[in-house]
Specification:
By secondary structure, the chain is α+β, with helices and mostly antiparallel strands. The protein has helices at about 15-30, 40-50, 55-75, 90-100, 105-115, 125-135, 140-145, 150-165, 185-195, and strands spanning about 5-10, 30-40, 170-175, 180. It has a single domain (about 5-195), classed as Glutaredoxin. It is about 55% helix and about 10% strand. Helix 4 packs across helix 7 (about 140-145). The radius of gyration is 16 Å and the shape is globular. About 30% of the residues are buried.
Length: about 200
């Protein structure tokens, strides 16, 4: 039987990127099914009353060094993006479109890579256009779809549903209705999936 893990993520989180890279490795080694669950982390934090680490200077400094350390230990290519924080709401909406149109695997890889491997300024419209064109997407059409009310509402609902389940951050893994928060909890989620 294929094991299943729900992976709640937002491209804005460097820890979600590290978790994504680990999941890709584990997916190959184990018969593992990952269900990608996009959320808007900013909205999730607001609803949960959480101030993100990026806006607390001591935590922000620590996070930069910690993500570099963790990615080195795990042999994951990583650059802490100098344009952080990245506004990702349209990218998260874009994932919903990509999933619907069956190019979600390419999309998630390219967006994560652009932010956390290439260190691109994904707050810049010109850079965003180039990244989308490299995926053979028409930026104008794609971004127009991302701002469609139905897509906006879908991401809002996914984020609200996550909060109702008790999810407050990304990355979060859910297995057998149990919540594991943080990229360092992936092994625990894997153990649960094997039960």
């Amino acid at each position: 039987m294929t094991k299943s893990i729900d992976f709640y993520f937002d491209f804005s989180s460097p820890y979600a990127y590290i978790a994504y890279k680990e999941i890709k490795r584990l997916e190959k080694k184990n018969s593992l099914k990952i269900k990608y669950m996009p959320v808007f982390l900013g909205g999730l934090h607001n609803s949960a009353g959480i101030t993100p680490a990026a806006f607390i200077s001591l935590k922000s400094k620590y996070m930069i060094e910690d993500t570099k350390l963790v990615s080195q230990k795990k042999n994951i290519k990583f650059i802490f993006n100098s344009y952080f924080p990245i506004k990702t709401v349209n990218f998260m909406r874009g994932f919903i479109i990509a999933e619907k149109d069956n190019f979600d695997k390419i999309y998630i890889e390219k967006i994560f890579k652009s932010i956390w491997e290439d260190g691109l300024n994904m707050n810049d419209d010109i850079v965003i256009e180039k990244v989308l064109k490299n995926m053979d997407l028409n930026p104008e059409i794609f971004l127009s779809k991302a701002t469609n009310e139905n897509i906006k509402n879908k991401l809002r609902k996914l984020t609200e549903d996550a909060l109702k389940k008790g999810i407050f951050g990304a990355p979060t893994f859910v297995v057998n209705k149990k919540i594991f928060w943080g990229q360092d909890r992936l092994t625990y989620a894997m153990e649960e999936a094997k039960k």
